[in-house]
Model the fold of this input.
Amino acid sequence: MEITDIRVHAVDEAKLKAYVSITLDECFVLHDLKIIEGTTGLFIAMPSRRRRDGTFKDVAHPTNVRTRQWMEKRILEEYERELARSGAAGGAPAAVPVPAAKSRTG
Done:
């Protein structure tokens, strides 16, 4: 499996830093991943839906820790690149496609 495209839409909120969409193998898109500032740094929150009891349930997620770490690493690398690009331009990060380098899980 490859992440073949990553699109970052940065936001200016306290803990929420960006919304992200990723394309897998040029044929499957996941929208509404979130980059969150946690107590130990940035992490990725998967797309979720609020249940009737007020809790949230992921609607899509990796099935193992290794895949989650791989996805998180790739997404955060692209987020940092986008921040660097937009910082050099002196503005807030824009919602522009960020071509993802082809990589595979082990």
About this structure: Strands lie at 3-10, 16-24, 28-38, 41-45, 48-50, 56-58, 96-99. Confidence is low (pLDDT under 50) at residues 89-96, 102-106. Residues 36 and 85 are 20 Å apart (CA to CA). The longest strand covers residues 28-38.
